[in-house]
Automatic annotation (TrEMBL):
This is ATP synthase subunit b, chloroplastic. One of its GO terms (molecular function) is proton-transporting ATP synthase activity, rotational mechanism. In plastids the F-type ATPase is also known as CF(1)CF(0). Keywords: ATP synthesis, CF(0), Chloroplast, Coiled coil, Hydrogen ion transport, Ion transport, Membrane, Plastid, Thylakoid, Transmembrane, Transmembrane helix, Transport. The lineage of its organism: Eukaryota, Viridiplantae, Streptophyta, Embryophyta, Tracheophyta.
Length: 184
């Protein structure tokens, strides 16, 4: 400490006018140089530093403002998205309910049309059965008639002789001629 005070005291004592030299004592010159540099920086750099800090402060405030605006916009978009989601979920529920209703309606329509088709098929089957029964009955009648006719012809042929046969034919021809004259 004595050296520091000695250096200040020696400031009052200037070397001779003809000589110029450097003070190489670091402890003596550093505080003086630092105080001069700090003083010059404070005096001249105060405005620059203040401007830099003000600019930095403005940029930070602008960034905060922009962030708040973006946050507000994001919140609005989130609310809009939530509203759309609710709307879409409601529509999906309606489609689901309508889809189930439509499926049930189509199922009932299919069941009804199947019953109608089965009923028509049953009617066609019954008509076909009746037609086939009628045809079978007619065939049986024809066979019975043919067999009866053959039996009658067989009986007549065995009972009739040629003379009786010729008289019957002549009588029938006479009847036909009489009918022909009447119709003319």
């Amino acid at each position: 400490m004595k050296n520091v005070t000695d250096s200040f005291v020696s400031l009052g004592h200037w070397p001779s006018a003809g000589s110029f030299g450097f003070n190489t004592d670091i402890f003596a010159t550093n505080p003086i140089n630092l105080s001069v540099v700090v003083g010059v920086l404070i005096f001249f750099g105060k405005g620059v530093l203040s401007d830099l800090l003000d600019n930095r402060k403005q940029r930070i405030l602008n960034t905060i403002r922009n962030s708040e605006e973006l946050r507000g916009g994001a919140i609005q978009q989130l609310e809009k998205a939530r509203t759309r989601l609710r709307k879409v979920e409601t529509e999906a529920d309606q489609f689901r309910v309508n889809g189930y209703s439509e499926i049930e309606r189509e199922k009932l329509n299919l069941i009804n049309s199947t019953y109608k088709t089965l009923e028509q098929l049953e009617n066609y089957k019954n008509e076909t059965i009746q037609f086939e029964q009628q045809r079978a009955i007619n065939q049986v009648r024809q066979r019975v008639f043919q067999q009866a006719l053959q039996g009658a012809l067989g009986t007549l042929n065995s009972c009739l002789n040629n003379e009786l046969h010729l008289r019957t034919i002549s009588a029938n021809i006479g009847l036909l001629e009489a009918m022909k004259e009447i119709t003319e």
